[in-house]
Design brief:
Serine Threonine Protein Phosphatase 5, Tetratricopeptide repeat, mainly alpha, 0% strand, single chain, globular
Length: 176
Amino acid sequence: MGIMRPIANCRSVGAHIGSYRRVYQSILILLLKVADVINTKIYKAVYELAEKLMKAAEKEDREAFDSLYAELGAICIEHENTDKDHPEQWETLADFTEELDDALVMYEKALHKAEVANSKDHLSSIGFSMATLQVELGQEEAAIKHLKNAKISANKIEDKDLKAEIDELLEKLTAK
């Protein structure tokens, strides 16, 4: 798996390097939607770190990736349970977490924060990301549960691509 797993797992992308633009666009769209809710300084830091993490992964620069990941983790921990805590930080950290089980823990944390904030965009994207990982881990029942919840949340969002991806994966899993 290596350094490419985080990018491969970001919602709506494959493991191919050509997909980095789509990851970048997805992160940009989500971050722009939350820019007015999340602290601007933190938003900018998370956005810049995500961009640098993608570049480090693309170059397979392990040292830079690990350093940037630690910096992102420190931002999350520093603001946890404060008024600056936001699901976006945790979702981004989970997107770049290499160990699948650890990534699921981060997504759970992000999902809880999104539930508290009633953020439909985040509930949808986090649920989809979790389901994607769960499929990879052979946890199809859990994946279906998260996809069904993500689909409900997605009814209230504008991201048609995400809605289609949720529907497509849910259909694939329930058709078996």
